[in-house]
Amino acid sequence: MRDASATQSPAPWRATRQRKAVLSALHDRPGFTSAQELHEALEADGVTIGLTTVYRTLRALDRSGRVDVVREKSGERLYRPRPTDGHRHYLLCRDCGVSTAVEADAVERWADDVAEATGFADIEHTVELTGVCVHCRVTAAPSPP
Ligand SMILES: [Zn+2]
Ligand SMILES: [Zn+2]
């Protein structure tokens, strides 16, 4: 017998007032935002919150799969809220855990074709790509002798 709860699921998310403030500030920003920028935006809104708390909250959001993360060349992480409605596919770095949504039209078309060809209904799929991001590739590059 299979226990569905035994499968790996994202870390649980406990919403505190500060966490909610961080998440809503993140939703108000267009595109990717650094912790520093988010902290400034929160302070401008009159929310009293420490930069450390912002960092911690963003990491918790990342662990629970609520944000997309990209890493700048400087090593700074940028965050964007992950859409909860739409079905997306992600590319994940095995070294640092950075994740980003990717286009997967071909996968969607293939799934539709399979459904049509087999007569199956309610077909679901899970496709996750993993690899080594640009930043980690640079770090892992062998040094010259
Ligand atoms: Zn990486
Ligand atoms: Zn899909």
Relevant terms:
5 helices, 3-stranded mixed beta sheet, disordered N terminus, Dna Ligase, domain 1, 3-stranded antiparallel beta sheet, binds zinc ion
Outline of the structure:
The chain is α+β, with helices and mostly antiparallel strands and 145 residues long. The chain is 39% helix and 17% strand. It contains five helices and six strands, in the order αβααββββαβα.
Model description:
With 145 residues, the protein is α+β, with helices and mostly antiparallel strands. The protein has two domains: 14-84, Arc Repressor Mutant, subunit A; 87-140, 2-Layer Sandwich (Dna Ligase, domain 1). It contains five helices and six strands; from the N terminus they run H-E-H-H-E-E-E-E-H-E-H. A hairpin with a 5-residue loop joins strand 4 and strand 5. Bound molecules: zinc ion (2 copies). The site of one zinc ion (ZN) has 7 residues, from helix 5. The site of one zinc ion has 6 residues, from helix 4.
Present as ligands are: zinc ion
The CATH first-level class of the largest domain comes to: Mainly Alpha
Global Rg: 19 Å
- Helix fraction bin: 25-40%
Number of domains: 2
Spans of 5+ residues with little confidence (pLDDT < 50)?
A: 1-8
The rounded distance between the terminal residues' Cα atoms is 55 Å
Biggest sheet: strand arrangement: 1-3-2
The assigned CATH architecture of the largest domain is Orthogonal Bundle
Number of strands: 6
Can you identify the CATH superfamily of the largest domain? Winged helix-like DNA-binding domain superfamily/Winged helix DNA-binding domain
What structural category arises from helix and sheet content?
Answer: alpha+beta
Query: What gross morphology would you assign?
Result: flat
What is the fold named in CATH at topology level of the largest domain? Arc Repressor Mutant, subunit A
Major sheet: size, sense and barrel closure? 3 strands, antiparallel
* Strand percent estimate: 15-25%
Number of helices: 5
Order of helices and strands: HEHHEEEEHEH
Task: Look at the structure and give the mean pLDDT.
Answer: 83
Oligomeric state of shown chains: single chain
